[in-house]
Design brief:
Layout: E1 2-9, H1 22-27, E2 30-33, H2 35-41, H3 47-58, E3 61-69, H4 78-99, E4 104-108, H5 121-133, E5 139-143, H6 151-156, E6 159-162, H7 171-186, E7 192-199, H8 215-226, E8 231-237, E9 250-257, H9 260-276, H10 288-298, E10 303-307, H11 322-329, E11 335-341, H12 343-352, E12 357-362, E13 374-384, E14 387-389, E15 399-401, E16 405-411, E17 422-428, H13 438-442, E18 452-455, H14 462-465, E19 471-475
Parallel strand pairs: 1-3, 1-4, 4-5, 5-6, 10-18, 10-19, 11-17, 11-18
Antiparallel strand pairs: 2-3, 7-9, 8-9, 12-13, 13-16, 14-15, 16-17
């Protein structure tokens, strides 16, 4: 049994002006070809790693084609997407010419990929693979919790399996599940039939963390339905609201064994329940000062501020300044910002060297919506080439690279003295949200000793930071990825969505 594996992943924020290029894929998580995929991802907590685990468990030959991942950003340039898609299909055809037809294809995709001229990038990609292998061989797809799912991709695939967790700590597990589904399909043990239920709902980020209410109840219902006779899998997708596409919003996908009516019944049952309780999935965020006041009142440290409007994991530039400015204005010591994306600041720090003091304009350079730069003085506490290994569980087994980076100690306003008091800022040159304390630790920073930590992330930071947190608050600071969706200039969505429209 030979099964092709690979994929192209991107979470596209169409409200960000910067296009995503082929170089962004190369310089992001990277593009891997053939055996490079096995070398990089075997044993890793990623869907592609789960595919490889599945090959070992079930005894099939994984045929690695191409896998590429660009960090979330703006619309993918059509030429970049076409190049990757064409190479994937070419490699599939070459693999079949050399080793005979593959028996099926396992795809690792995101679910919110948007390309210039292609609103449903994931659906287009699956259709291209379907055209290449025909309709008799199965395609099983693993996708993110934040997909904007469409009838197009459901029609092109045999089964779609979405993540069960946010933060996404189950990617490897979902990859192994997808591998089991395709193997059982090929052995004739099951015949997947899929149904999609779209929901006119913008699901609030604060209500999506799967280990906590109210999202934990949603997943309990998902798993209860999955355990019923005849069911193969159930996926809840909370959607990705920063993609201006016709099918933006939440959805349910149900896969049943040979029974399309059962799949439809399951998707509608869960979809109806979610819609009936729609007000539970929306919760307003706090301002920065409100969160700090709440954290101090509770008195459990460190207080973590999730700066979700500047979440680099959703495509934001990573250089908004409101959280840092507030920490400086309030004179809060033992405070840390992870991470500020500012190439100019890093270059200044590297030129000056560790121990030097520099004057700089920090952050706020990418877009006026991110807030103005902060005019400040800082001491360079440490420098790094940006390389580190993730602690996990998210991305466990993988290394990362923030690019040339520095730890700056930014003077608190009006506090210049021999015993300078400061706010720590880790400035980086590559956009990646802080998933765990590993990179900060390489610079000599002990996050456990901080009282306040501002993280440019919505929820994935919980993977590594929740166990050390005293309290956690999502905050609405000035930034591009606003969570008041009435402020986003949608033009392509084709239906009213709650809570924008009652």
């Amino acid at each position: 049994m030979r099964i092709a594996v690979g994929g192209v992943l991107h979470e596209t924020s169409t409200f960000i002006d910067t296009p995503t290029t082929l170089d962004d894929f190369e310089q992001g998580f990277g593009i891997y070809r053939g055996e490079q995929i096995c070398e990089r991802f075997r044993g890793a907590n990623m869907c592609i790693g789960g595919f490889l685990d599945g090959a070992e468990k079930h005894g099939f030959q994984a045929v690695p084609l191409l896998w590429g991942f660009a960090y979330p950003s703006g619309l993918i340039q059509r030429s970049a997407y076409d190049s990757l898609k064409r190479e994937f299909v070419d490699r599939l055809e070459q693999a079949e010419a050399q080793g005979g037809p593959v028996d099926g294809v396992l795809l690792d995709l995101h679910g919110a990929m948007v390309v210039e001229g292609v609103e449903d990038g994931d659906g287009d990609f699956i259709e291209s693979v379907r055209r290449a292998i025909g309709h008799r061989r199965p395609i099983v797809v693993a996708q993110d919790l934040h997909g904007n799912h469409t009838a197009r991709r459901v029609a092109a695939a045999d089964a779609i399996v979405g993540y069960d967790t946010y933060p996404h700590v189950d990617m490897g597990e979902r990859g192994r599940e997808a591998a089991e589904i395709i193997v059982r399909t090929l052995r004739g043990e099951i015949r997947p039939k899929m149904a999609l239920r779209q929901l006119p709902l913008f699901w609030g980020t604060r209500c999506q963390v799967t280990a906590h209410p109210p999202m934990d109840e949603v997943l309990r219902r998902v798993h209860e339905i999955e355990r019923r006779p005849g069911m193969i899998s159930v996926t809840i997708a909370t959607g990705f609201p920063w993609a201006d596409v016709p099918d933006v919003g939440a959805s349910v996908i149900a896969v049943a064994d040979g029974d399309a009516a059962l799949a439809r019944q399951a998707a509608d049952e869960l979809g109806d329940w979610i819609w009936q309780h729609r007000e539970r999935w929306v919760r307003p965020a706090m301002t920065v000062r409100e969160a700090l006041e709440a954290g101090d009142k509770l008195g459990r440290y460190p207080v973590l501020l999730a700066d979700h409007t500047d979440n680099t994991g959703g495509g934001a530039p990573g250089d908004s300044t409101e959280v840092l400015r507030t920490l400086l204005e309030l004179g809060l010591e033992d405070a840390l910002i992870l991470y500020m994306v500012d190439r100019e600041a890093v270059e200044l720090a590297r030129t000056a060297g560790v121990g030097a003091r520099i004057r700089l304009q920090l952050g706020g350079k990418s877009d006026p919506r991110q807030g103005p730069p902060i005019d400040c003085e800082a001491e360079i506490a440490a420098l790094s080439d940006g390389r580190f290994a993730y602690d996990g569980p998210m991305y466990a087994g993988l290394t990362g690279n923030m690019g040339p980076s520095a730890w700056l100690k930014v003077d608190l306003a009006g506090r210049a003295s021999p015993e300078r008091q400061s706010v720590s800022v880790v400035v980086v040159t590559k956009r990646e949200q802080p998933l765990d304390p590993a990179f900060a630790r390489t610079l000599g920073i002990d996050c456990r000793k901080m009282r306040y930590i501002g993280l440019k992330s919505s929820a994935h930071f919980r993977s590594g930071f929740e166990k050390l947190a005293g309290s956690i608050y999502n905050v609405d600071a000035a930034g591009i990825l606003v969570h008041d969706f009435s402020k986003l200039p949608y033009r392509r969505r084709r239906r009213p969505l709650f809570p924008l429209e009652p």
